[in-house]
Amino acid sequence: MPVRWLVRFGYDGHLFAGWARQPGLRTVEGELLRGLVRLGVASSPDAAELAVASRTDRGVSARANAFAVTTGLSSGVFLRSLNGISTEITCTAAVPVADDFRVRRALRRTYRYFEPLGEHDPVRWERAARLFCGSVDIRSFGRGLPAGAPVERTIESVAVTVTEGGLVVEVRAPSFVWGMVRKIIAAIREHDAGRLPLTRLEAALKGRTRLTLPLAEPEGLVLWDVEYPFPWTLRWNGPNRHQLARARSQVESLWVRSEVMKALAIP
Fold it and tell me: Catalytic: which of 12, 46, 57, 121?
């Protein structure tokens, strides 16, 4: 008897052209669907009835996104099979759900943006971040939104943490529109650079003015968590040896790249 599963999964967005299937491009959805059929998790792409909590753009990574899939596999081999799809996609937990479960109806989504410290002033970043709280008009902070009337969304918090070498901006909200976190980061950068006063930023959040903001680079953005009102009942005890080998290779490559760049920068 086929069972509908909700699965927590992560991936390195640098390796994919976003979530959604696109002809001729390697995407997370396309990779999953090919693997689900190849490994017998689903008999066909349509039979999988694959649905995702958050569609990420090209270059955006996920620590804990979520997808729903229908399969006849037993719980004992389910996560092991999913983790055989690709070393670049890790499935860490699962829970059975009703056939009509809506994966996009999560309680909360949390994103983190990793910003190199550079010349940034953390105090100015924190002051701007505190304005993004409560019910706000997001017309200045999303893509493709109607301009005529306010578009309200609730943002639970935007917090800035100083870490070694940079800033981590954590944004928590029940839902997000396309490009929202990256435009929030762009707005905070504009304030830090002295081009966007707090009074004007606050006016935009209240719908009294509109801002024209770029999108911050996608590579620094990670979908950190998607929360539901129930616990995960099945957990992956990995990583497997293929995932470990790939992780070691990536760490070694980063070290080599870092040393090469240091050598090029020093006369």
Answer: 57
